[in-house]
Structures are given as C-alpha cells and as structure tokens.
Design goal:
With 120 residues, the chain is α+β, with helices and mostly antiparallel strands. It is built from 3 helices and 5 strands. The radius of gyration is 14 Å and the shape is globular. It binds guanosine-5'-monophosphate (5GP). Pfam families: HIT.
C-alpha cells in the first residue's frame, strides 16, 4: 500500500489554497479541478477534502456522507462539463502498480473525444 497521509502532498496544498487550481465544482466534502497536464480535451480531477491516500483508503474509511457526496460530485462535475450526452471515463490510479503519483485520493474524469478502449 501507500505510506500514511502526507499533509504536504500537492492536493492537500491545493485544498488549503496554497497552490492555485482551475476549479470546476465544489461540494461540502469534495473539490473538482482541471488537471494541469490534460490527457483529453476534458481532464478533471475530483478529490475528497478529507485526508485519504487512495481509493482503497477512501472506500474503507470515509464516512457514508463523504462517500455519497463524492460520487454525487463526480456525476455533477461530468454533467456541468457537458459530458453526459457523449460519455466519459472515470479512473482512479491506486498504489504502485497503477503509478499513482499524488498520494491524495483523486478520480480522473476524461472526456471530450472518443477515448478508445481502456488500457489495460
Ligand atoms: P495520478 O498518476 O496520481 O493518478 O495522477 C495525478 C494527476 O495529477 C496527473 O494527471 C497530474 O497531471 C495531476 N497533477 C499533478 N500536480 C498537479 C497540480 O499541481 N495541479 C493540477 N491541477 N494537477 C496536477
């Protein structure tokens, strides 16, 4: 698994307002913002405000309120970005083999073009 939560990780700093981001959506327990290195015409990250290192940590330890808020936020963000009709992909890299770079749980939303088959 991943090491314990590092409060100096880049998304923690974004949540504290120490680093700017291009916001897409915000809820009580989540923030959505555009990826700094977009891999699709629309590439947004949705993160919980709570200190969770990975999707596994979030799923195992977040509160029901946080989990509901998070999934509502993912759907709302895709809708407000205009992706609902054409479709989109969500993805959460989790741990070493997935190449997770930022140790604060984040869901990627990709859209705005035909994305091809998932790899792998
Ligand atoms: P991971 O590989 O951990 O799933 O993805 C991390 C993502 O965070 C990458 O797509 C990367 O471009 C994005 N990212 C890293 N640093 C920043 C940043 O400072 N601001 C924003 N908006 N995105 C970032």
């Amino acid at each position: 698994g991943l090491p314990p939560y590092d409060p100096q990780n880049i998304f923690a700093r974004i949540l504290r307002g120490e680093i700017p981001c291009k916001r897409a959506h915000e809820t009580t327990h989540s923030l959505a913002f555009h990826d700094i290195n977009p891999l699709a015409p629309v590439h947004v990250l949705v993160i919980p405000k709570g200190a969770y290192v990975s999707s596994a940590d979030f799923g195992a330890t977040a509160t029901p309120d946080e989990i509901t808020d998070f999934w509502r936020a993912v759907a709302a963000t895709a809708q407000l970005l205009g992706l609902e009709a054409s479709g989109y992909r969500i993805l959460a890299n989790t741990g070493v083999d997935a190449g997770q770079e930022v140790p604060h749980f984040h869901m990627h939303i990709f859209g705005g073009r035909a994305l091809g088959r998932m790899v792998p």
